[in-house]
Queue: 3 jobs
Job 1
Amino acid sequence: MNFELSDEQKMMIDTVRRFIKQELKPLEEEVEEKGFLEKAKAEVIHEKAKELGLYAMNIPAELGGGGLSAVDRILCEEQFGHTTDILIRRAFGNVYEPILECRGEQVARWLTPTVEGRRTCAIAITESGAGSDAQGIKTHAKKTDTGWVLNGSKHFISDGEWSDFFLVSAKTGEKDISMFMVDKGLPGFTIGKDQKMMGLRGTPHLELFFDNVPLEPLALLGAEGQGFKLAMGALNVVRLAQVGARAVGKASHVLELMNEYANERKQFGQKIGDFQMVQQMLADSVIEINAARWMVIHAAWMIDQGLDARTHIAMVKVHAAETLGRVVDRAVQVFGGMGFCKELPIERYYRDARIYRIFDGTSEIHRTVIAKTVMKKGAALFELNR
Ligand SMILES: Cc1cc2nc3c(=O)[nH]c(=O)nc-3n(C[C@H](O)[C@H](O)[C@H](O)COP(=O)(O)OP(=O)(O)OC[C@H]3O[C@@H](n4cnc5c(N)ncnc54)[C@H](O)[C@@H]3O)c2cc1C
C-alpha cells in the first residue's frame, strides 16, 4: 500500500488551497453580511477558477470536464471545505452526475453548456411531503402526444436562483420515477420563495412549482422509470465529495483556528492550550478528523477501482458529518465567548455544520442502510481481505 501523494496531486492541492485563500476567503464576510453573492463578483471567481482547469472537475475530460479520478476529486473537495458553499459553486461549478446520461441532441443543449459553465443546473428531488422517503414524491409527469406534462412541487432546492435548469424527479407510473431536465421560464413553471436557513448564507434554497408544464420528449434524462436509480447514483458521489470530503475540510479548517487560539490565548498566566481539558478537545478533534479523512479516501479509491462503495459512502456520510459537528462544537468551547460572538467566524462554522447530518440522507437513514448491509452480508464485509 502506498499512501504517498504524487507531485501532481500535491501541486493540485496547493493550487486549489491558494486560490481559495486569495480569491474566495476575502468574499466570505461580505456574503455572510449581505446574504448573497454579487453577480459581478461571481463572474470574476468563475473565470479565474476556469483558468485553473478545475471547473466541472468530476466530468470526464473528453466531455470537457476536469477528468479527475475520484481520489483526486476528493483531495480538491477537502480543500473546498475551507470556504463557503456558494463561493465553491460559482467558482468550480456543481455539475451533477446524472447529466452524463445526456445523449444525442441533449448533449449540445444541456450537457456541454453546463460543463463549460455557460449554464447551471440544480437537482430537485425533495418535496414538502417527501424527504428521506424520496420514492414517496407526488410530482408526476404524464405522457402526451407531444412529450410530457409535469405537475407538482419541490422544496429546499439548493442554488435554484442561479440555475438555468433543474434535474427533476417525477413519477411516470404507479411506482416508476423518471428524471427530467426542466428549463426555467417554461410555461407553468414558477419559482417560490427562498427558504431562509440557519446557515449556508448566500446559497438560495428555493421552492419550485409545476402547473401543467409542457416538456418535450428530449427533456427525459436517461430511460423512463430509471430516475430514482439515477438520482441515488448521483447522490452517492455527492455524499462522498460534497458532504464527506468537505466536512473533513471544514473540520480541519476549524481545527487550525482552534489550535492557533489555544496557542495564543492566555488565562491564569499561561496558554489555554497548556490546560489538559483544552488539549483533550484538540486531540479528540485530530483523531476523529484523521479517521474521517482516511474513510473518505478509501471510499474514493474503491470508486476508482470500480468497486461497490455504497455502504462505505454511507459510513463516510455519517462519520464525517458527525465529526464536523463535534469539532465545531469544541471550537466554540475553546474560543469561549469569542466562539459565540459574531466578530469571529466560529459561530458561522457552527451553524453551517449542522446541515451536514441532514442533507443528502440523514444520519438515521444512512445508519439504517449500513445496519441492513451488515445484517445481510456480515460484518466481515468491511475487512480489507474480503
Ligand atoms: C440546506 C438544505 C439544502 C438542501 N438541498 C437540496 C437539493 O438541492 N435538492 C433536493 O432535492 N433536496 C435538498 N434538500 C433536502 C434534504 O435532502 C432533505 O431535507 C433530507 O433528505 C431530509 O428530508 P426531510 O427534511 O424531509 O426530513 P424527514 O425525512 O421528514 O425526516 C425527519 C426526521 O425523521 C427521521 N427519519 C425519517 N425516516 C426515517 C427512517 N426510516 N428511520 C429513521 N429515522 C427516519 C430523519 O432522520 C429525521 O431525523 C436540502 C435540505 C436543506 C435543509
Job 2
Amino acid sequence: MVVTAEQLAGCVAELVRIPSVNPLHRGPIAESAGPIGEAAIAGRLAERLSSLGADDVVLDDVDEGRPNVYARFDGRTDRLVVLDVHTDTVTVEHMTDPPFDGRIDDEFVWGRGALDTKASLGVILALLEQWRADGRTAEPTLLVVGSVCEEAGGLLGAGRFRDWVHERGHRIDQLVVAEPTELAPIHGHKGGVSIEVTVHGKAAHSALPDLGANAIEAMAHVIAAYEAEHRRLQTIEPTTELGTSTLSVTEISGGTGGNVIPAECRITIGQRVVPGQVAHECHERLIEIAHEASPLPVTCRSLLPAQPDGTFGSEAFYQPPDGDLVRTLAGAAGTTPTVAPFGTNALRYGGLARELCVFGPGRIDDAHQATERVAIADLVRLASCYEAWLTPT
Ligand SMILES: [Zn+2]
C-alpha cells in the first residue's frame, strides 16, 4: 500500500502539537504552552518508534532533560543508513499564527516546526507505520536520529551523536541530514570559526588622552587587518562550487563615556571555511592577525564549543554530486543537487559516513518566520524519495 497524504499530514501535525522550542529561544508564549526544550518530543518519539517495531531505541542525554533519540530498524542487509532530524524549533514569540495547533487545511500543515524540520520526522514515521502494516522491511538497516540543540547552542545533539557512533565503532554508509532544501540534495556547505577579540587599553580623561591607551583606536587596526585578510581570501581560486572563504566582523562594543578614553573594545569575527582549509588553522590565524595588528594587548576566545580533540571550528562539508545517495534522492525528487550557504548538523559529521547529504521539503527562506507551514504535496514527494532510498525495487 502507498502511504496516503492524510497519513503523512497527520503524522507531521502530531509532532507540531508537541512544543519543542530550543531553550535559548524561550519566551512567555512558548512557556505558556508547556515545558521548553526537546524532552517531551523525544519521549513521544521514542515511544512511537518502539511501537513501530524498532529493534533498539536509545534515549541519550546530551544535556539535562535534552535527550537525543536513536531508533534502529534492522533491514534486509546490515548496510547502515541514518536519517538525522533535529527535534528543536526556533522561537515562537514573533508568530502571528497559533504556533502549536498543527492544523491541516487542503494544502498545508501549519505551525512551528512544520517545515523546519518535523516534516521529515513525520514522513518517516508514516512510512515506517505503513511498511509495518504491509509486512515490508527496508533494504538497509535504518537508524532514525532525533537530535537536540540544532537551532541554537552549537549543534550539541549532532556532536553527541557523532561521539556515540565513534564509541560504538558503527560504520555508516549513508547519512541524510533533514532540513528544508526544496528536495534538492545539498552535497556541500561551508564550515566556520568564530571568535571574540578583546583589546585591553587604559582609561583616562579624554582631555588628557596621552595618559590612557585607547582600545577602540587600537581595534581599528585589528578590523583593518581582518578586512585585508578577507580581500586576500577573495583572490584564491575556489576549488568547489562553494566559492571562496569569507571573513566578517559582525559585532563591536567598547567605551564607557564621551569623555573617557576607552579601556576596552570587543568584536566578534567569523570566517566561513571552505574545502581545503583546516578549520582550527583558520581559528589560529584569526588570533594571530589580532595580535599582530593591535598596538595594545589582546585576548581572544572561541565562540564555538571545542571539538572532541580540543580544537575549535568546523570543516566544510563537501562531496562530489555524483554519489549514489545524492543521485538517488535527486532522481526521485526530480531536482538538481546543489550546495547551500547555511550550515546544518552536517558540520559535525565530517568523515562519519561514506556518503552525506542534506535533504528535505520546503524552502529555507520560509523557515523561522511569523507563520510556518509545509505543503502536503511536498510530504508526498518526500515519502516517494525515502521509498526510493530505503526500499529500492
Ligand atoms: Zn532546521
Job 3
Amino acid sequence: MSNVVLITGAAGWLGGLLAHALVADPKTPNVQLILADIVEPKAPQGVKAVTIKADLTDKAQIEALFATPLGIPDTVYCLHGIMSRGSEDNFELGLKVNIDSVRALLETTRQKSPKDNLIKFIFTSSLAVYGGPLPHVITPDTIATPEGAYGMGKLTSELLVNEYSRRGFVDGRIMRLPTIVVRPGVPSAATSAFISGIIREPLKGLESLCPIGDSLDSPELELPSWLASPETTIKNFVIAKHVPAEKFLKHTRVVCLPGFTATVRDELQALEKVAGKEAVALVKFKDDPINRRIVSSWPPRFDNTYPLSLGFVVDEGGMEPIVRQFQKDVAAGIA
Ligand SMILES: NC(=O)c1ccc[n+]([C@@H]2O[C@H](COP(=O)([O-])OP(=O)(O)OC[C@H]3O[C@@H](n4cnc5c(N)ncnc54)[C@H](O)[C@@H]3O)[C@@H](O)[C@H]2O)c1
C-alpha cells in the first residue's frame, strides 16, 4: 500500500498537528505527505513530503495536488476553510472556500480515484451545522438546520461528500467536530475564542476577557459547551482513516466526533485546580449578550454512542487534564 496522504489546510492548526500524527501512526507506515495551503505549509522532519502553496479556489491548483512526484494520494483530508466569524463576515469568500473549493477538490478526487480502491475523502465539519430548536441531546437522527453562513457552508459540503460516497465516487468520511480547547496562539475574533482564551492567557500569566457573565458569581457561568481536546481530536482524525467503510450507517457518512460538556464555571474550576486562584484572577468579565446568545445557540450535549461504536475516542476526566496538558505545552514553549 502506498500510504500517500494529501492534507489541505496543512498550514493551519489542526492540519499541522495531523501531519505529525500520521507520521507517528503505526497503521500508516512509511506515510508520504502532500501538504497544501494558501500559506506555505511546513512538513514534519524525516518524512517524504511535498509542500505546496496553493489557493484551492483555483481548479488548476487543485489538479496540481494530484500531479506531484508522490502520485495519487489514497486519502485526502480536506481541512482548509474559512472559519466561523470569517465566513459570516465575508459571505462570498465563505461560499467560495467552504463550498466551491470543496466541491472542486471532491470532483478531482473522484476523477483520480481508482474504481476498485476508492480514495478516502475525510472532511472536517462543525457543530455549527445545528441551529433552531434542538433536542436536549443531539443524536445521529437530529436534523441539521444551520443559522449561519459557516454552518450552512459545512452542511452543503457534507451533502456533496455523502452523495459522492453513495454513488461510489469516493469513500467519504465526515467529522463534525466539537469546539476544541485549548487552541494555542493569540486570541482570535471567533465567538468561541474565549472558551480557549480563559485558560490559555492566564496560564501564560496574561489577562483574558470572558464575555459570559460579569463576575465569578454570575449565573451565566453555567453556560455549557460541547468540547474536545486537540490531542483526542487528532487521534480521531487518524482513526477516521481506518474505520472500515461498511461500519458507517448506510444512509450517511456523518459522524459527530465524541466530546464532553463543560460550563464556563467548570473551566474556571479546572484552571484554579491546576494553576491556583491567582490564575483565575487574571480572567476579567464583561458580559456580551450577543456573544452569549450565539454560544448559547450551539448544542452542548451529544450522544457519543455511535462514534464510540465506530472506534472513535473521547476525553476522559473533563477539563482538568486538558488544562494540565496546556500548562505543560506552555512550559515547553509550544503553546
Ligand atoms: N478548530 C476548531 O475548533 C474547529 C471546530 C470545528 C471545525 N473545524 C474545522 O477543522 C478544519 C481545520 O480547522 P483549524 O482550526 O485547523 O483551522 P485553521 O484556520 O487553523 O486552518 C485552516 C487553513 O485553511 C487555509 N485556507 C483558507 N483558505 C484557503 C484557500 N483558498 N486555499 C488553501 N488553503 C486555504 C488557511 O490558510 C488555514 O491554514 C476547518 O475545516 C474547520 O472548519 C475546526
